[in-house]
Design a protein that fits this description.
- By secondary structure, this protein is α/β, with parallel strands linked by helices.
- The longest helix is centred in the last third of the chain and has 16 residues, at about 225-239.
- It is globular and about 45 Å long.
- It has helices at about 40-50, 60-65, 70-75, 90-105, 115-125, 145-160, 175-185, 200-205, 215-220, 225-239, and strands at about 10-15, 20, 30-35, 55-60, 80-85, 110, 130-135, 165, 185-190, 210-215.
- Strands 3-4-5-6-7-8-9-10 form an 8-stranded parallel β-barrel, surrounded by 6 helices.
- It starts with 8 loop residues before the first strand and ends with a helix.
- Helix 4 packs parallel to helix 5.
- The structure holds ligand 3DU.
Length: about 240
Amino acid sequence: MAPYKWFVRKEYLPLNGLEHEAIDVRSETRVVLALDETDGAKAMSVAKAVQGLVDAIKINWPLVLATSPKVISELALLGDVICDFKVADIPNTNRLIVEQAVRLGASGVIVHGFTGSDSVKAAVDAADGRDVYVVTEMSHPGGTEFTAPHADQIAAIAVRCGASGIIAPATRPERIRHLRRLVGDLKVLSPGVGAQGGKASDAIRNGADYVIVGRSIYGAPDPREAAQMIVDEVREELR
Ligand code: 3DU
């Protein structure tokens, strides 16, 4: 993602072999929707409902496995798509996975960093200018068992390998603040807002560039209204 910019992206995506134009209008709201909905039709309807209100849509295995990898291309027509595949393999396999995500239209891919520099670097190289985000400390309670004690090293790997940013936990804003200091101007994306107990304003105040929000938006009776509330909270924090 390239925040704070409006731009038009012309791309060739493998949708029935047809060329089409993907136009991303960055709404600069610093909110990323985690679209973990497994009903494909509902997922598309939520994505359309929040179009222009979120800066990107993050998808994960639940939606891809419930539908097909083509969902990446379909969503890419609406805006930036971040594939949260938490890629965690040897360099060659990381490369193959990232290449396929990019071929389908992903603007970014999330990878694990515990695999080491060579694996993360392979992902960054394969992304060919698209964003690679490295998971540091995870947001769930178990994230404190293994990922937290190693988060500094993983953040250093992200910086060293030329990643675009890191994933840091909105459930522990003080950890966002700490990791932000380590990664300088890399982007910090923070999941854990809403259903996991984190607050968007706390995450932004402590150094997150974006909050990632799933269930609180796609599970709400009116996803656009729910997204708007988070956007307003972030905007208020930035005033
Ligand atoms: O809890 P939510 O429904 O708002 O969804 C959060 C999303 O972010 C979900 O896709 C999850 O897989 C992802 N994520 C985390 O929640 C925590 C992490 O440390 C990394 C990714």
